[in-house]
Structure formats: structure tokens, C-alpha cells
Amino acid sequence: MLDNFKKISMVVGLAAMTAASPVLAQDTVRLRFASAFSPMSANNRVSVPAFIKAVEDASEGTLKIEHYPGGSLGKSPVQQLSMVENGITDIAEVVTAYTPGRFPELSVFELPFLADTNVEAGLAAYQMYDKGLVSDFDDLMLVGIIMTGPYALDATAPLANIDDLAGKRLRVAGPIQTEMASLLGATPVGNVPAPQIAENISRGLLEGSMMAPGNLYNFRIADAAKHHVWDLKLGSVAVIFPMRRDTYEKLPPKAKAAFDTYSGEWFTRVLGEGLDKQQDEAKAKIEADSEHTVYSWTDAQIEEARALLQPVVDEWNKPNDNGVNLYEEANAALEEVRAGN
């Protein structure tokens, strides 16, 4: 899995060093790909450029995709979906937790102890989308998806046991994380965008956060929170890369065929591999830093947390209004992905 990511990194690097690019045909379609997040994130540094290169090459000159990371088309992570829908950009990196009520089925992956890696969670989520189990995509095409996680706990004070969470003001994203923080005895604090977590911790407004370890350096949380627990696997948050369906339909045939080949499962796997690699590197860096403490909870402590969190699982482990048990569907999709990998 990671060997494939290394090969992609080499391809992107070689492409960046190429001195000249072919002259685009006059009928070349240009698309804009936006992200509010750092150009140095795994997504924007390697995975998205790899997707862009693959699609452009396969389009045989009929498509050019311009990449705008770091908020250069719009800094607010909350506005990225509306930017796609309003035509400000053609594709964007959209954190679904910032759009409450949209794509509700993807929230099932926020449940604890479900997925182990970004790759398996993303591919399982895409499989559910492909089966028509994810709503709100009538006018949108899913170019790729990340289920970033599993989320963990980071704080300014020790996290040796459940009792250490009592009353701690933890930043959370969305209702499921809010409920999980409460069930663990913490005080959930919402409406804090990820780029503002570190500042709010430094100002004493937060005492910690739920966050995927791979993003601790991207959002400077590692500078503000020095105590970590990674054993609980507190779910994965959806990040989607949507494009308007009518934009796709208007593409030249070769450009459309290129999207058919490299969007969806291919791009989702590349994104997941990049985040899993970033996660492993961030964990290793923190473990090697004497200023940080990573707590290893015992099996009994993990089971205690699992029991406390069971009510949030039970809320999903039943048929929804459409008669679909999304928790069972997510588990089935994960098992199929694991068997195929």
C-alpha cells in the first residue's frame, strides 16, 4: 500500500522538475481544484497532484486542472462545498462535519472502533456511495473521499485513564464526537475549525481535542497539546472531493473518460495511502519527542471506554427511515475491503 504511495510521490516529483510543459490545445477545458488546507498536507503535496497528473495525461490534452491549496480561492473550510455548488471552484476538499445535515449517512464512520486505517475507511465509504446508500449527491459527483482517522485524544494534561478526561474542554466536530466526549466525561466544545484548535488551546479556551494523529502537525496541535491517547480509535470524519455533475457531463469525451478511470476508487485509495503514511510519520515524530507523552491504555481501560461509548453505536445499529442499517452496511463494506486488500 505504502509502496504504491512512494511511487506516486516519485512521479509527482519528476513531473514538478520538468522544465517545459506541452502547449495546451485551444479547446482544452480548465478546471479549478480548491483546498482551504495547507499546501504541505499529504493531500495537497502528493495525492491531489498525483490525481491531477494522471487525469491530465489520460485526457490527451483536453483537460487542465489548476490546483489552489492553502485557501487561495477561499480560506474558510466551511464554505468549500458552497464554492463548488456556486461555481467558484470545480472541485474542493470538503469536510462534511462543517456542513451539518448534508451527507448524513457518511457520519456512520464517525462511530468508535469501526475502521483501523484511512484506506479501508475511505474505500468502504466509497463502496457505500457507489451502492446508492449516501444521499445528497443528485447534483454532485464524488471524485474521491477520505475518512480521516481514526481520531484520538490530545490534551494539555495527562490522559492516563478515563478519570483524567473528567470535565476537560475538548474540541469536537459534529454531533457524534460531541456525544462521545460527553460519554467519556469530558466537556465537548464545537464550532472551532481545525486551523484554530491550537490557538484556542494556547489561550486556555480548550484543554484538548479529538483529532486524527496525522493532522497534529498540520494544525500545530502538537505545539499546544503534549499528552496523547491513540488506543481508543474514536471514529473517522468524512472529507469529500465533490464536483458538480453538470460540470462532468460537459467535459470532452477524452477528459470524461480520464475522470472515469482515476476518480472514485483510484483517487480514494491514493488519498488514504497518503494519510496513513502521514499518520505513521506523525506518530513516530511525537513518540521520539521527549516533550510529548503517549499513554498506552490497558485492554481493561479500552473496554471500559468501549462500554461507555456503546450508546452512540446503538443509536446507529438499527434500520433508518429507509429501512437500511448503516452500521451493518459500513461493517460489511469494511470486511469486503479488508478481504480484497
UniProtKB/TrEMBL annotation:
Presence of the UniProt keyword Signal in the record: yes
Signal peptide: 1-25
Subcellular location: Periplasm
InterPro entries membership: DctP_fam (IPR018389), TRAP_DctP_sf (IPR038404)
Keyword Signal found: yes
Tree of life domain: Bacteria
Keywords: Periplasm, Signal
Identification of the protein by name: TRAP transporter substrate-binding protein
Organism: Arenibacterium halophilum
